[in-house]
Amino acid sequence: MRNRSGGLYTAPVTVWITVFFVVPLAIVVLYSFLEKGLYGGVRYRFSLDAYRALANPLIIRVAWTTFRIALVSTIGTVLLALPAAYYIARSSRRTMLLVLIIVPFWTNFLIRVYAWMAILGTNGFLNSILLSLGIIGEPVRFLYNQWAVIVVLIYTSLPFAILPLYASIEKFDFTLIEAARDLGASRFAAIVRIMIPNIRAGIVTAILFTFIPNFGEYAVPQLVGGRDSFMIGNVIARELTVTRNWPLAAAMALIITVITAGGMVVYSAANRTRGRGSGRRV
Amino acid sequence: MYQTPAIAGSPVLTVRKNVLTVRRNVLTHQRKRDILVDVAPGRPNTRRRQSGKLKGSEVRIDGVDKAFGEFPALIDVSLTVKKGEFFSLLGPSGCGKTTLLRIIAGFETPDVGSVLIDDVDILPIPPNRRHVNTVFQSYALFPHLSVFENIAFPLRLRGLGEKVVTQRVESYIELVRLHGQARKMPSQISGGQKQRVAIARALINEPDVLLLDEPLSALDAKLRQQLLIELDTIHDSVGVTFIYVTHDQQEALSVSDRVAVMNLGRVLQIGAPFEIYEQPADEFVANFIGDTNIQPAVVTSVEGELSRLDAEGLGPVVVTCDVPPEPGHTVRHTIRPEKIRISKKRPEGLAPNTNILQGLVDERIYSGFQSKFFVELPSGYVIKAFQQHARFLDDGPEIEWKDPVWVWWNANDGYVVTPRGGDE
Amino acid sequence: MSTKSGFPRFVYIFVTFFLIAPLIVLVVASFNASRSMQWERFSLEWYRRLFFQSRDLWRAVRNSVVIALSSATVATIIGSLAAIGIRWGRFRLKSYVQTVTLMPLLLPEIILGVSLLIFFASIGVPLGLGTIFIAHTCFNLPFVILIVLARLEEFDFSIIEAAYDLGARERDTLIRVIVPVSMPGILSAFLTAVTLSLEDFVITFFVAGPGSTTLPLYVYSAIRFGVSPVINALSVVMIAVTVALVLLARNMLKYIAK
Ligand SMILES: Nc1ncnc2c1ncn2[C@@H]1O[C@H](COP(=O)(O)OP(=O)(O)O)[C@@H](O)[C@H]1O
Ligand SMILES: [Mg+2]
Questions:
Q1: Which of B280, B420, C58, C226 is least surrounded by Cβ atoms within 10 Å, i.e. has the fewest?
Q2: CATH number for the domain running over B59-278
Q3: Chain C: nearest CA to B165, how far in angstroms?
Q4: Which value does ipTM take for this structure?
C-alpha cells in the first residue's frame, strides 16, 4: 500500500460507521429536540419538553443513584484490581495468574450474573450455608437492592480493570522503586510517589473502563436490583419500550454520551502527557 | 586537484585497485588470505570483473532540493556516481543522507532538480519499477518468510519457475555466505545474518544501483568490520553501482571509491577518501573526518608555495599551499595529530620550514596501538599529538603527565581550509 | 522488591476466588436433582432436558451462531483493511476515522443500542436478524481495528517499502506481505469478534425483533421469568465449549505465528 491509498482501505469502515453510528447518534440528538409522538416515535415539531422532563426530581434522583452506584463500584473495582494486578505483574507465573482472571469471561455475562443470583438468592447457596451453620434463623434477602448491584458490577468489571493495570505495571521499571528506596523513601512512599504516577495511564484506563459501562448499565440492576437501584439505563429502556417517550430517552442517551465524551477527554489528556512517538522511520 | 587516473574503458577499476591495496595493507595476514581466496578465479563474479564488464549504471543528481514543510532537508544537491562505483554519502545524523537515498529509490520526490540513471529521468518511475534496490537500515526482512523466501521474493513476484528460483537464490545465498541458514526465519538469525539476507534480497534482481542505508549501524564493531570487507568483496564481484550511506567516517574511508561529505542538507565535498582526509574542502570536513587541530589564523605573508600565518594559540606557523591564500585574510590552519612529532628532548637537525613549539603534557591516553598526547602550549591552547606504537615496547623515552615536551611538524603537513562550511 | 508482597497476594487470591466461585456453584448445581440450591443428589436430568426438551433454546443458539459468524467476518474484513489504512496511510478524514471508529467501544453499550433502535425505527427498517447483524458489526469493528493495529505496530513502514523496492505492485504488497504479516492479529480479531457477538446482550436487546431471539436474550428471559436449572446445565455446557474453543484457538494461533 502507499500512504495515499490509506483512504481507500478505510473507506468501507468509514461508510459503515458513518451510516450506522454517526447518523443514528445525530438522529438521537434530533429526536431529543422534538415532540413525543402518541404511540412512540416523534412529531416533527421543535420542543424542549424532553429537557424539561429531565428536571423532574424523579429523574434527577435516578441520575444521582446511577452516579453513586457507578462511582462506588468503580472505587471498589480499582481498589481490588490494583493490588491484584501488582501481584500478577510481579509474579513469575504471570500467564497462569492472568488466565485465572480471564477464565470467568469465557462464560456468558448473563450466566455469571445468574450465578450470583443463585448464590445470593433467598433459596440460594449462601443462605443455605448460613442456615445450615445456624448463623441465621431465616433467609436473608441479599438480592434486589443497591448493594447487590454494586457487588455484581464489581464482579463484572474486575478483569477490565485488572488487564490495563497489569499492562502498565508490567511496563513499569521497578529499579525506580529501588532507586527511591536507596534515596531514603519508605516502601509505601516509593509506591505512592514513584509507581502510581508512572502507571497513571493504566489507572485512568481502568477507571474509565469501569465507570463508563457501569454508568450506562442496564442488565444488572434489572436482574439483581430493586426500587432503590433503578438506573438511567433502565429509565431509557422504559421510556423507549413502555412509556414511549422517545425524545426523553434520546435526551438521556445524549447526556450519557456527553459525560462519556468528557471522560474520554480526560483520558486522552492523561495519555498525551506521556508523549508517544509516531514511529516514523528515520 | 587530484584527478581520477582515467584510463579509457575501465576508469573505476584502476581506482579500486588502489583502494584495495591501501586497505589490504592494514589487514592481518590471515584476513588478507581470506580475501584472496574470496576473489580467487573460478567464481562467476570474478570472471565478470576480469572481463571488465560493469553492470552498474551512472547516477546523476542535479540541483535537488527537498523540504519537509519549512525544514530544508536537501539544498541544491548535485553529484554524479559513476558506473560500478562504490560511492558513500557521509555526514552526521540528520544531514539528509537517507532523504537523498529515498529520492533515488523513489520513496520521496524532490521539490526541484532531477535524478537520472544512465541519462534516463527516473523521477516519473514508481519505486517498484526502478532498477534500483535498497538495503534498509532496519533490514526490513519479511517476518513471515524464511531466509530463502525473503531472498526469493523478487523472483516470486516475477513468477519465475521453481527451478530457476532455487538456483538463483542458492547462488546468492552462496554470495553472502548464508549456507545452511536458508530455512530459518528472520527471527532465528543474528543481526549480521539478517543484514546478509537483506543484501542478497536486494541484489537478486540484479539492480543497476544498490542503495545501502547505514547497513552496518546496528551491528557491533568487530562484525561491522568483517561485513564491511565482505560488502567490498561483493561489490567487486557483482559490479553494481553501490551508494552507501553512513555517518561513520572510518567505514566510508575504508571501502569507498569516492565519498560525498554532507552537512545540513548540502554536499560539502566530493572526492576520493584520501582527498577528503588530506585536503578537506572546509573547516567542517576537516573537523568531521578524523581528528585534527584546527585554529583560526591570519595570513601574514606569502612566498611562493610557502605561507606564513599567525595562528590563534600557536603563534607564527609556516605552511605550504598549492593555492596560496590572500595575505591579511583569516583562514583556518589545520594539522592532523598523527603528523605531529613529540619528544622530551629538543630534536636536532630539523628540516627547514618545521614548526616547533614547547608545552606541558596535560593528558596522555594510551590506547594500545597509539598514545594520544594533549599538550598545553604557553598560550593555553591544547594541541593533540598522536604517537604510533609501531614496535614492541619501543616508544622512546616514556612521556608522562606534566612533562615538558617539544612538538613539531613540517610545513608540508599543515593545511589551510576556508572557515566553516554547510552551516553558516 | 524482594519481600513477599503479602497484601497484594491476599487481594489476588480473594479476587480470583470471587471471580471463579460463582462458576463452581453453577457446575455443582447443574448436577443437583433439586430445583433449589440445597444439595439433594446427583442427577443428569437438567442435561437431558437441555438437549432433548429445549427447542427454543437451540433456535436461539443457531441465531447467535449465525449472527456471530457473519458479523465477525464482515467486521474482520473491513476492520483489518481500515487498520492497514490507519497504520500507514496519510489521507484526509484520517483523524475522523480514528476517533469515530473507536467510539462504539468507549460509549456504554446502551447508547449504541438506543441510537440504532431509534435509527431503524425512524427509517422504517423492521427489527430482526438483519438489524442485529448490523449492530454487532458496529461494536465489533473497534475491537478488530485495535487488535490488528496492535499487530501492525510491530512492523514499520520499511517492510512495505522493501516490497515495493523489490518490484511488488500494490496488490502484491497487500497479498504477499501485509496480510500474511497481520494474520495472527486478524485471526485473534476474528475470534474476539465472535466471542463478543455471542456474548452481547444489551445492544441485541434493543435491536432484536420477534423471532430473532439470540442465546443471551433467551437466557435473560429465562432468568427473569422463571429460572429453570436447565440454565445451570446450559452454563456448564457453554463453559466447556468456550474452554475448548479457546484452547483450539490458542493452538491455532501458535501454529500460525510460527
Ligand atoms: N518525512 C519527514 N518529515 C519531516 N521531516 C523529515 C522527514 N524525513 C526526514 N526528515 C528530516 O530531514 C532531516 C534529514 O533526515 P535524514 O535524511 O533521515 O537524515 P540522515 O539520514 O542523514 O540522518 C532530518 O532533520 C529529519 O528530521
Ligand atoms: Mg538516516
A1: C226
A2: 3.40.50.300
A3: 15
A4: 0.89
